[in-house]
Every structure is written in structure tokens, then in C-alpha cells.
Amino acid sequence: MTWAGHLPASREYRRILVGLGAAGVATFAQLYSPQGLLPTLARGLEVSPADAALSVSLATLGVALAVLPWSWVADRVGRLRAMQVAIIASTVLGVLVVLAPGIEALLALRLVEGMALGGLPALAVTYLHDEVHARHTAAAAAAYISGTTIGGAAGRLIAGPLAGIVGWRPALLTVAAVCAIASIVFLRLMPRPRGYRPTTAATVRTVADGIRTSVRDPALLALYAQGALLMGGFVAVYNYLAFRLEGPEFGLPATVGSLIFAAYAAGTVSSRLTGRWVPRLGRRRVLVAGTTTMAAGSLLTLSSALPVVVGGLLVLTAGFFAAHATASAWVGARATTGRAQATALYNVCYYSGSALVGWLLGYAWSGPGWGAVVGAVVALAVLAAGLALAVLPARSPARAAVTPPTGPGAVHAVPHDRRSGGGTT
């Protein structure tokens, strides 16, 4: 009889949630900590806002470049072992970034660090589909994504205020230390894999076949577009809003302006709630609602009243993470074959959008100003919502197959061969 996966009542399930939550902290605190100190970094290295933002964009580009190779490595050595290698390598590189003598070396190290970090987001959701019972993967994926929001917020909130006091190098070193502790928690807690067996049959052709299957599915392509468009706009807002808050319009000191990243708490809550909303409302409805909420929040940030700007940031963040949690989990459920490559492609698009849009909108900020940034973000959200409504099914087969659809994981009741990773090998 095929093993069905860990259930919420088991000790292993709880260890997986805590371990992956710690991995989310370690990954995203490192990935986005420079975003919390971009104005300080730009002043310290005497570069433009767009050039400073490359410290974020090149790291996310590294993630985008690495997720497909990591999926191939994971097929051969196992999802968990690949994630363990990735988290150790990224922790070491996080310390080396602090020692970079100038902007060129820093950017090069950030690119390589992003490539190491790519092993975690590339494999975490696939790992959950291998190890957790299908009825509970939606709730488990939402818990993992909430851990990523905590990590993203922690990295920014530690680095930003500290940079205004002690400088950007000690601030990033502190983040690296926090990530090292989170990495140890991950390495100690994760249980032995039971749902997937590594195989040397995982060749480059296997990966290519998985990619080919994924790109032939219009629904998967639409989901990949959601990741690229929404993440690009989201990162751009957080990249450049700090410059606005520390500029003449608001005049906030760096230690105060960087506190905007506390708004990530809204994403922690909304990403967890999607596990409840999706079975009741359907994936597409939750996805479009999250996208619409994100656009509304970005428009609120046009205000010249600081409380309204902060409220808009909270709304935008909640909407984005609700949409992202829904789209990323939908990819894993939709891809009954080539799942590792399908989820890796989502991450390629997600982080490519972050890298490209997050950098390009720096020129919108330096030129026309904040209104141009918000206009671009709203346009990206409208395009994403239009694609979702035009291409994605209103009621997915995976959800309809669950009888009755009572639990959060009902949306992920997708039959697949756990030993083969859903047909990828």
C-alpha cells in the first residue's frame, strides 16, 4: 500500500511545519534584508536608488536562475538533502556579503547567494506534496509561506533600524547570525523523508520533459504570470517607498522609515487564512480577490498622509500574500506530472519578476516619482487579474474531486505517485 503522507496529528507533521518555517526565516531574511537599508546603502556606497536596489534584484535573479538546476539535483539526491545543502551554503555566503569591499563584489556575492538560496523555495512546496497527506498540503503550504513572510519582515526590520545606528555591514552581519540559528533549527527538526526516493534516472532530459509538460498547460502559464507580475510590483513598492519616506515629503529618519516592513505581518496572516478561504470560495476567486486588494492598497500609498500610506501598505501586503499563497499551491496541485519542474518554473517567473520589475521601477521613482511607481504596480495587477479570469478555471478539477470539500487541504487532493515525485522521474 502506498504511503499517504503525514497527518496533522503526527509529530512529524509538526516538525515539518516548524522546520520549514525556520527555513523560510533563514532564506527570506537573507534574501531581502538589504531592502530594509537601501537608502543607507545608496548613501554609503554613493550609488543611485536603482543601483542600490540591484543588491535585492541580483539575489532574486540568482534564485530564478537556480531553481531549475536545484529541482534536478533534488530528483537525484532527494528534496531534503538538497535543501540542507542549500541552506548551509547560503548561510556561509551571507557572511561573505558583509565582507565585500565594494559595490561590485557585493553584487557578485549577492547573485551567488541568491543561487544558493534558490534551493529552498524551489523545493519546499514540492517536498510538502511528497511528505504531507494530500488533504493537508494547502494548510501546510500556507504555514510555510507565512514563515517566509516572518523571515522577510525580520531581515528588513533587523537590518533597517540597525543600519541607521551602526552602519549597513554590522546590520547585515546580525541578520546572518539570525539566519544561522534558523538554519540549525531546520537541520535538526526535519524528519527522514518517506514520500520520495532519489533516483539516478533523473537526467537533464527528465527535467526538459517536465518543463515541456508544464509550458504546454495554459493554466500553469497563467499561474506563472501571476507570480511574475504580482511579485514584481510588490517588491518595487517596498524597494522605493523607503526612499520616499526618508525624502523631503515625510522626512523620516532611517531607523523609523525602515519600520514600514512591519507591514509584512499582514502577509503572515493572509497567507495562513488562504488555507481556509480556498476550499470555501475556490482558488480563482481568492486569487483575483487578493490581486484586487493589492492594487487597492497600492493606490492608498499615493496619499500624503502617513497613516493612510501605512494602511495602504498593510492592504497591499495582505492582498499580495493571499494571491501568492493561492497561486503557488495551485501550481503544485495542478501539476500531476513533472511537479518538481512545474513548481520550479513558478519560482523562476516569480523571482525574475522581482528582479526585473524591482529594478526597472527604480527609474520610474527617480524620474516621474511615486505616482509612476504606483501606476505601474496597478497595471501589473490588472493584467494578472485579467489573465486569471480569462484562463484559469473557476472550479478546478482537484477541488471538485474532494468529497466532501471540508478541510483546508481539500483543494490539494491530487492523486500522484509519491515515490516518483508525481511522475518527474
From TrEMBL:
Keywords (A to Z) from UniProt: Cell membrane, Membrane, Transmembrane, Transmembrane helix, Transport
Membrane topology: Multi-pass membrane protein
Organism: Terrabacter tumescens
Family: Belongs to the major facilitator superfamily.
Subcellular location: Cell membrane
Residue ranges annotated for the Major facilitator superfamily (MFS) profile domain, each copy included: 16-396
UniProt protein name: MFS transporter
Annotated stretches, region: Disordered: 401-425
A Pfam family assignment: MFS_1
Sequence intervals crossing the membrane: 12-32, 52-73, 85-103, 171-190, 221-242, 254-274, 286-306, 312-332, 344-364, 370-392
